[in-house]
Amino acid sequence: MVTNVHLSEPGRQCSMGLWMFVAGLMWLGSAAEAIRFELDKRECWVHEVPADGDLMHVSFVVIKVANPWGRLHNRRAAYVGVDLSIEDPGGQQVHTIKQRMEAKYNLTAIRKGPYKFCFQNRVSLLQTIDFNVHIGHITRDEPIKDEHLYVLFAQIARVEDALFDVQFEQHWLHSQATRQAQVANGLSRRVLYKAAVESLSLIACSVLQIVLLQRLFEKRLGLCPQRV
Predict the structure, then answer these.
(1) How does pLDDT run across 7-20, given as a tens digit for each residue?
(2) Domain boundaries, the chain
(3) Which residue intervals define the domain GOLD in the entry (predicted)?
(4) Domain spanning 16-137+146-184: CATH superfamily
């Protein structure tokens, strides 16, 4: 037996609101763009902003610096980090960040359209960047006729913002943890190499002392008067 259920107008609007809520959650995962890339000199990325006044969440972390010599020279270490410039669809620079190992920034997009994010590396060392950008925007395809649905959409927006904040912070913390692990790994290798060099130096000094003492005793024995 099949029963046909006819939804009233408020019921259809409520159902539409629930579907939009689910679509909003799915959109949340697709709207955030996380990229990990190696920066040699200059690299630019473009992200589309769908509407005027959308909020852009931007973060990056330098998780690795490819240095074959281990420890950086003081002058070179002072310039490690990257520059970030953000340009609006008209080509105007709206924000800049200079020589930072990590940064997290929120920016309101005055105009919709493609925004360009350009990274610049000032040193001759290859740097690995973890870059994350998200555009906060909720699409409403149809006007809301029921006043009660305004409350529903407000709750949807709050839940979406809360979920994004958690996701954004998790990615930020994960990137920082990755960089700290790389630094710790580099430090442990340097400590191991230093300990090995010190051990070899100690062994060499001990061998040298034994040789010198042996020669000293041989000379003294040679100077002793011999019995005829």
Answers:
(1) 444 444 445 555 55
(2) 16-137+146-184
(3) 42-135
(4) GOLD domain (2.60.120.680)
